[in-house]
Amino acid sequence: MNLTRKALPLSVPSLADKLRTQTPTVGSWMSLGVPAVAEIMADAGFEWLVVDLEHSAITLREAEELIRVVDLKGLPALVRLSSNDPVLIKRVLDAGARGIIVPQVNSVEEAEAAVSATRYPPSGKRGVGLARAQGYGPGFEAYVAQNETQLVVIAQIENFMGVEHLEGIVGVEGIDATIIGPYDLSASVGCPGRFDDPKVVALLDTYEETCRRVDAPMGYHVIEPRAELILERIELGYSFLALSTDFLFLGDACRREVGAIARNIGNSGGR
Fold this sequence. Notes:
The protein has helices at residues 15-21, 35-42, 60-72, 86-94, 108-118, 140-150, 160-164, 166-170, 182-187, 198-214, 227-235, 246-267; strands at 25-30, 49-52, 77-80, 99-102, 152-157, 177-180, 219-222, 240-245. The chain is α/β, with parallel strands linked by helices. It has one domain (15-246): Phosphoenolpyruvate-binding domains (TIM Barrel), CATH 3.20.20. The protein has an eight-stranded parallel β-sheet with strand order 6-5-4-3-2-1-8-7. Helix 2 (35-42) runs parallel beside helix 3 and helix 4 packs parallel to helix 5 (108-118). 39% of the residues are buried.
């Protein structure tokens, strides 16, 4: 009986491979903590899914269930951490996450700390345990080998300080890509949600110019569930793209259809 953890198909480029070649890849965000929602989204055509621990009520136990569903569907499950915490990093990776998204990375030192927490000694400081990721024991050696080349570490750039130190952050070995968090980035210069404010536009211009100059993959979380916004980012050279989140997809569909009913009832005079 083979008890080792199932690897991603070798014939299909992995997320790590796509990030290295800056091949556009599109995933989404999960905040509801419901396994059925994870299953639906995994079947929708996304290439990866993120379990959000920062801005949700998802517990670590619930995160493990979401990771399991996404993983068994053949997609890489990433976890957006609540903080750059080595203990939390170790626990979500042991639960089977294929990578992490680290919020508020504003310095080289913070990027280095995140990477170190994902690697076993001698290249890092991650503690060794046997859990789901390691096939509960028998898959440990295979996991260690895969961890070195396929684990994904994404630094979230969502503060003007992160943009200022971006060249150093993307230069840290083990940082596979960065992703813009647009709401927090705009809030860091005093205009939350105003993405067309000149200060926010200037930060994004700097982010893009720096990434292009050092040939680093660019990422963006498009909040509105609109495909054309993803396509616009791809035209600008972004390759790691998140489209909206589970509750916005649900709410947007509900509002659109209920609104259509209300408008038609109004136009027909209630008949």
